[in-house]
Amino acid sequence: MPEKRRPAKPPVPLHRLGCIFFRTDAGAEPVREWLKEQIPSEARKAIGADIKTVQQTWPVGKPLVDSLGDGLWEVRSAYTKVDYRTIFTIDGSMMVLLHGCEKHSKRTRQADLGLARRRKAQMERR
Fold first, then answer.
1. The domain made up of 18-125 is a member of CATH 3.30.2310.20
2. Domain residue spans of the chain
């Protein structure tokens, strides 16, 4: 009797995420404003490409994405020796961009983490 072959296991499916900017009660979108007003065009393109990679290949780990705890993650982008961080959370199948900053030290500043946590809490109350 011929040996039965098991079918190959399908690859682990990747989750495609949508992406939205956190919006304050007043209607402002702080991450969009940060990108448009404070980030040079070429750096903005690099950050956007990294966010798109996360959307298309979630879940992603280091070096592109790192967990900050409490349901917060950061996209780790760099352009011309400047490190940028885009802090986000996952809400269902949506990536919600909560805060963006330049990183000047090894650890993410507590002020940046606190702001992202407050925005996440505000989002969850809605």
1. yes
2. 18-125
Please state the rounded mean pLDDT for residues 106-125.
93
With a pLDDT cut of 90, the percent of the chain lying above it is 79
Return contacts of 72-76, CB within 8 angstroms, 24+ apart.
72/98, 72/113, 72/116, 72/117, 72/120, 74/108, 75/47, 75/50, 75/51, 76/50
How many percent of the chain have pLDDT more than 70? 89
Contact 59, 48 (CB under 8 A): no
Residue with tokens 């956007």: 48
Average pLDDT of 98-105? 93
Backbone phi, then psi, for 104, in 5-degree steps? -115, -5
The whole-angstrom separation of Cα 13 and Cα 25 is 36
pLDDT exceeds cutoff 70 at 101: yes
- Residue position matching structure tokens 């990536």: 95
